Amino acid sequence: METTELDIQVKTLPEQPGVYQYYDKDDRILYVGKAKNLKKRVSSYFNREHDSHRIGVMVKKIKNIKHIVVDSEMDALLLENNLIKKLQPRFNIMLRDDKTYPWLCIKNERFPRVFLTRQVIKDGSEYYGPYPSIRTVKTLMGLIKGLYQLRTCNYDLSKTKIEQGKYKVCLEYHLGNCKGPCEDLQDEEEYLQQIQAIRNIVKGNLKDSLKDFRDQMSNLAEEMRFEEAEKVKRKITTLEKYQSKSTVVNPKISNVDVFSVVSDEGYGYVNFMQLSHGAIIRSHTIEMKKKLDESDLELLELGITEIRQRFESKSPEIYVPFEVEAGENVRVTVPKLGDKKAIVDLSTRNAKYFRMERFKQMKIVDPDRHTNRLMAQMKEDLRLNEEPRHIECFDNSNIQGSNPVAACVVFKNGKPSKKDYRKFNIKTVEGPDDFASMEEVVYRRYRRLLEEDEPLPQLVIVDGGKGQLSSGVTALERLGLRGKVPIIGIAKRLEELFYPGDQYPLYLDKKTETLKIIQQLRNEAHRFGITFHRNKRSKSAIGTELEEIAGIGEKTSIELLQHFRSITKVKKASLKELEDVIGISKANLVYKFYHNDQNET
Fold first, then answer.
1. Which of 71, 218, 416, 479 would suit a FRET pair with 538, their CA atoms being 20 to 30 Å apart?
2. Subunit composition (predicted)?
3. Cα–Cα distance for residue pair 468/464, rounded to 1 Å
């Protein structure tokens, strides 16, 4: 079955929380949905039959998918609400009405009330949210009422009216839920301290409130008032579980464009998010091919101009990760902390995911394109005569000269070819001599390839500096391969690349894919060599004394150690005990070995 562009989009979606948008062939919005896992949720539309006729019709019309990645499932829920109300997709039958999610309001008045509302009125009051459900806000309100004694009446508690005795305390006062500010029974400063604590709680700054309640719980426990202490403990638990507000919606951020950029060697990716009345209403990422090796600053400035023209944006302010020129009538803000910084970070994350998806799509459509580009890049960066399709890397492993070994790992087309890995026991070198060991294994490796008429690599890498490189060159020279097989050394400390006959090392940009492939080769050779060395060392340790006994091999040694747990207990074992484990003939060998030794001493 032929893979369509839509199939590729679905396969390369991220497995992150977010919102997806379906568009038809005329680029008209069909549907907006939320997901805990974008790839899993969107895939479910295309890999099964749908009971709903409405959904079946919609799926047939889908020609393009867009998405926005967010931090959490709650953020996805809130963003879905914003986008549905803005875009009015024809297949969304929920959330298209004017009813919106609830907010928590701290009223702009003397002795402020705290209550939930669905309407945001610009009268100087503070609004927190929105929250994904009424239940969430009611839970929060219940928490606040349980922690603090606030008024619920809508009286105008001006100083004049209180002094005139206009009001009388109500039932809430007698129940202990209010301290009676209407009759001047509560100080305004004390009341405002409670309001400040509530602000901290809804913002997620719980440290001070938790400390106060923990102190309160300790005091109650010391006074043996355990039931009241338990109630305070439950409040603490609720506070600890409470999650701070979403970064997707913030009423203080209004009519702003947010831009970010990520780039690689060939392309730049600029993400755009548009915020209106504190809510994200649009997200879009463009791919820009580099023509003259433009910097991220140049790419971002080009992207801002293009996107604002395309979407006819008139927002007077933009948020960006670094200073840019955006024209005289645009205010540029580079946030460092808080919600504004969180929005810029969200934009950057979406740009990164877009870049990753483009790479994945490229590999599906043209799997050789990425490899060909990488090989051409490595040839240029490393000054080679041909592309290094076949690379081999060598590393030595020994501890104070014990059990010296070496490893050779092989990469083909930039990927590990584990079936071609080789390990070597050092045969001709005594003691810890890295240079001589390197010469031995390089010589043995390529003598074998020549004898078996196997293809030689287009690049050999030795782990180490000039000394190890010189040893590798000597080995190739002995085989008549110097100049025929390129060889370089990599020194770990500064990631210096050494070439034969060149006094000065080559330094590659830390971001280049070439250096990353070389580091991967070096690390893989080290891992493979260390594993081989440890295995050899452990076998050597197991065998020690028991394998010195004529007729006793590794398998019998392991059986004895598993049963007796130590060499000392094997020595003290009776002949009968040994016979029960390894049989009569081998038991006699072990028993005589140790008891003859004792007789001689």
1. 416
2. Interacts with UvrB in an incision complex.
3. 5
Q: How far apart are CA 171 and CA 165, in angstroms?
A: 18
| Contacting residues for 553 by C-beta, under 8 A, at least 6 apart | 547
Residue 130, preceding peptide bond in cis (omega within 30° of 0): yes
Query: pLDDT tens digits for 368-390?
Result: 777 888 888 889 888 888 999 99
**Contact of 178 with 219, CB cutoff 8 Å:** no
Q: Spell 287-314 as b/e; 16+ CB within 10 A means b.
A: ebeeeeebebebbbbbbbeebbeeeebe
The H-or-E segment that residue 283 falls in is strand 279-289
Q: Tell me, what amino acid is at 4?
A: T
Q: Is the pLDDT of residue 444 over 60?
A: yes
Cα–Cα separations (whole angstroms), residue 511 to 111, 264, 414, 464, 516: 58, 9, 16, 21, 8
Coil/strand/helix, residue 418: helix
The token pair that represents 583 in the structure block = 């049989």
| Pairing relationship of beta strands 331-333 and 487-491 according to DSSP bridges | unpaired
Contact 191, 181 (CB under 8 A): yes
The per-residue pLDDT for range 19-68, each reduced to its tens digit, is 898 888 888 888 888 888 888 888 888 877 766 777 788 888 888 888 88
Say if residue 545's pLDDT is above 90. no
Per DSSP, the three-state class of 476 is helix
Contacts of 581 (CB under 8 A, 6+ apart): 559, 560, 563, 564, 587
State the Cα–Cα distance between residues 73 and 241, nearest whole angstrom: 16
Give the helix/strand (H/E) hosting 374: helix 367-381
pLDDT in tens, 98-142: 556 788 899 999 999 999 888 888 888 888 776 666 776 777 787
> What would the DSSP string read from start to end of 293-319?
---HHHHHHHHHHHHHHHTT---SEEE
Centre a 10 Å sphere on the Cβ of residue 337 and count the other Cβ atoms it contains: 7
The whole-model pTM stands at 0.53
CB contact set of 87 (below 8 Å; sequence gap of 6+)? 21, 29, 32
Do the Cβ atoms of 586 and 555 come closer than 8 Å? no
The answer, yes or no, to whether residue 482 has pLDDT greater than 60, is yes
Burial of 578 from C-beta contacts in 10 A (0-12 / 13-18 / 19+): buried
How many CB atoms within 10 Å of residue 37?
15
Residue 425 near residue 529 (C-beta atoms within 8 A): no
Handedness of CA 288, 291, 296, 301 (dihedral sign): negative
Model pLDDT, residue 313: 83
Confidence of residue 601 (pLDDT cuts 50, 70, 90): very low
Mean pLDDT for the chain?
Answer: 81
* Residues pairing with 104 in the sheet: 116, 128
DSSP string, 58-109: HHHH--EEEEEE-SSHHHHHHHHHHHHHHH--TT--SS-SS----EEEE-SS
